[in-house]
Amino acid sequence: MEGFGAKILFEIPLFGGIPVTETVVNTWIIMAVLTLFAVIATRRFEAIPKGLQNVVEALVDVITGFTKQTMGEKKLVYAPYMLTLFLLLAFSNLFGLFGLRPPTADLNTTFAFAMLTFFIIHFNGISKKGPLTYAKGYLEPMAFMLPLNIIGELALPISLAFRLFGNIVGGMIIMSLIYSGLASASAAIGLSNLPILQVGVPAFLHLYFDVFSGLIQTFIFIMLSMVFIGNAYD
Amino acid sequence: MEAITGRALILACSAIGAGLAMIAGIGPGIGQGYAAGKGAETVGRQPEAEGTIIRTMLLGQAVAETTGIYGLVIALILLFANPLINLL
User: Fold this and answer.
1) What is the DSSP-derived secondary structure letter of residue A117?
2) For residue A1, is it within any domain?
3) pLDDT in tens, chain A (234 residues)
4) Which of A191, B18, B20, B48 is buried deepest, with most CB atoms within 10 A?
């Protein structure tokens, strides 16, 4: 194996060659699928929902209920952001089920999502509390706590990014090692062109590493974003 | 007997370092097990709040897992994407 990094698939010949990696192409696929899903699911709304509209309404209901419960009634405006994050992250983390490399296995992607939450928190802090109160908040409870408070604030996006990255990359590496292990086991039996042992055995591990771990990490990312954005106001 | 080259020494010590980094897995194991025990006890005391209790427990456990994941990331970086080799 020549490394678990994202492979560069092609280069855009502008500005001296912009490399386009697997992560970017997989994110394009996710964007296309989610846009298609949104267009198909929201055509011809009916008063009594049936079929796909049921699923979409249930999803929006659950996330809006969560947001109301965690952040309070007045911050319901963040529910669309949470739902977008949920769909993006859930779909990205489940990419391993299709044999493709999940885009969240790249630190760039997870860091971008964490920076979104970070900017929302601090932009709201500055605009809702006023720059002076916001800056004074760093000097609490004592003035010499300033560096510790700054480090604590920076720790949030770093931990959000690394938690998601570490879980998904760990799962991806273990699954690749298991697949190559099964391929060599098949070769040892003598069927090196038809790795029959790769069928069925990894299914249970996919259930844990991709489905369970991916959905839990999405849930955690969203809950932490909600809690910290809610706390940024006061 | 030939001398150990610098590159071999870096690779060997990276392997040892990766193993040592995984010792960080003890912490989340103990902490999350304790939290799960407390969660089970609370569900036994108040079965009607089961949904909220399980959600809170999962949230707390995933946050507590973070330092164990940091250790895993360091170990994986040392094994598969070693940056120390190029500093020779």
Assistant:
1) H
2) no
3) 456 777 888 888 777 778 888 899 999 999 999 999 888 887 777 777 777 888 888 999 999 998 988 888 888 889 999 999 999 999 999 888 888 889 998 889 999 999 999 999 999 888 888 888 888 888 877 878 888 888 888 988 999 999 999 999 888 888 888 888 888 888 887 776 777 777 777 888 888 888 988 998 999 899 889 988 888 876
4) B18
Class of the CATH-defined domain B6-87: mainly alpha
DSSP conformation letters of A168-201 = HHHHHHHHHHHHHHHHHHHHHHT-TTS-GGGSSH
Residues 10-49, chain B: which have Cβ within 8 Å of A? none
Question: Do B80 and A219 make contact, defined as CB atoms within 8 angstroms?
Answer: no
CA distance B20 to chain A (A): 17
Find the residue in A nearest to B69 (Cα): A166
Query: Is residue A208 within 8 angstroms of chain B, CB to CB?
Result: no
Contact A225, A115 (CB under 8 A): no
What are the residue boundaries of the structural domains of chain B, listed by start? 6-87
ipTM above 0.95, yes or no: no
